[in-house]
Amino acid sequence: MREGNRRRLLGCAALAVLAMCFVEGAPSQAQPFVYVANQAGSVSQYDAAGGALSPLAPASVASAGETQGLAVSADGKSVYVANPFGNTVSQYDIGPGGTLSPKTPPTVGAGDLPVGIAVSPDGKSVYVTNAIFCSGTVSQFDVGLGGALTPKSPPTVTAGCHPTGVAVSPGSDSVYVTNSVFSTAGVAQASISQYDAGAGGALTAKSPASVTTPSNPLGIAVSQDGRSVYVADVGDAPNQLGDVLQFDVGPDGVLAFKAPSSVPADNTPDGIVISPDGNSVYVTNNFVFGGGLVSQYDVGAGGALSPKTPATVVTGNRPSGVAVSPDGKSVYVANAVDDNVSQYDVDPVTGALSPKIPATVAAGGGPQAIAVSPLPTLPTDKAQCKNGGWKTFGVFKNQGDCVSFVAAGGKNPPSGP
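Predicted structure:
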């Protein structure tokens, strides 16, 4: 299968405890951690403390076949990976040093061709898009003890034509899915399915069940305030420049186009992410001749986007997934053909990107999705306080202060150093 066709078939837009030793006497690894799903069948894992990525040991872990979407749980203890040709989701525990190990069982069944995956912010549900052309569905899972997944009842709900990207509202009460096939037998099919997440996180279609889009939506993201949704839209013809669709979210979670309904992107926009402060949006463009680009936008009044200056920055060949660090100071892009991850510093004033040194770090074969673990709020184990780990929490005067807090059972949290 040609690379371009393969990416169109599987394209989708598509956080763990602190510093502990890998082995006795070894340097500690501190959150955040970064994980990358590699199409060749592995998950790369990195320490991202300080912003620049460095591979963990080992640098990757095996997955259950070819991988596509990836998501990290809100509590930072689990990673979930969509395996499109095995029709499964791999599930991993995040260890003290950020390394992954398979849960028991290591996989759970999904629908046909799972590609996109998202975890609800409340940590209780996982949703997976199954991109089987125009018989698409969304698998829905409960998150049980230890982060293990079990299917909800029913295990799937109907989506649109070739569902790919999936995003959950900050309140975990709405779910949005991009359906990326433009037309079948001359009939427009591209849309965004919209669901209510009811008691227990089970999905039911909103009214209307979907919003029609003009072409091929892929990646999707919801703003932190829950008032805006942004969608990376490919366009409906080869080598045509795409755009970013922008929506207002109504009181019932139903989407309505903003004015204007879109802003220009470059060729084949795919992944999309919003900065933690809500002021910037970054989009990968993965079919740029000779490489790739990241479009970057300011978020203005009412959530409307406008291009930054410059409007794009150069990245690697066929960029797909994009992620931003919890502190908003770093952005990471998975480059599917170059087998690496581009890493950028974020200007603290403008939000514009500039390459770190080094500009890239190696990944596995065909890196696709990328995600960053969240920073924990307070320690639960004395080991998290050692080797400088107490500094990451930002509320302790020294290591002893941190250890005393844990020893007291986490009562009376400090207000600051």
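Summary: Residues 321 and 369 are 4 Å apart (CA to CA).
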